[in-house]
Amino acid sequence: MEVRVRDTGRGDVVLSPAGEIDMSTVGVLETALTAALNRPDLRECLVDLAEVTFLDSTGLRVLIEGFSLAQERGRSLRVANPQPVVERVLRITSVGPLLGLPDVATPLPPDARWLG
């Protein structure tokens, strides 16, 4: 797993991890996220999950701890572009909306009826 870091020059940083985030690789993300959140000029840290193929509970822990640290410092942390398997983990754990994913309810099909 690797994490690319891009500074937008406006106080925003984009972290782009790639690969699987699990207990054997989470340290790479944790190091990059901590470094970004420790920047004195930081306003927002965006974690672009487009290239993340797997996310386990250790990855969730790092994202939640990063969110808490950002809040303590008056900054923002959010995620974007998760692949479906990663988005599912974020949603079933209710972490997605906390990290800026829209809270989308699945609409009923137009022909749905109550049974019974």
From TrEMBL:
Domain of life: Bacteria
GO molecular function, one term: anti-sigma factor antagonist activity
Coiled coil (residue ranges): none
Family matches, as Pfam families: STAS (PF01740)
InterPro entries linked: Anti-sigma_ant (IPR003658), STAS_dom (IPR002645), STAS_dom_sf (IPR036513)
PANTHER family: ANTI-SIGMA FACTOR ANTAGONIST TM_1081-RELATED, ANTI-SIGMA FACTOR ANTAGONIST TM_1081-RELATED-RELATED
Family: Belongs to the anti-sigma-factor antagonist family.
Protein name: Anti-sigma factor antagonist
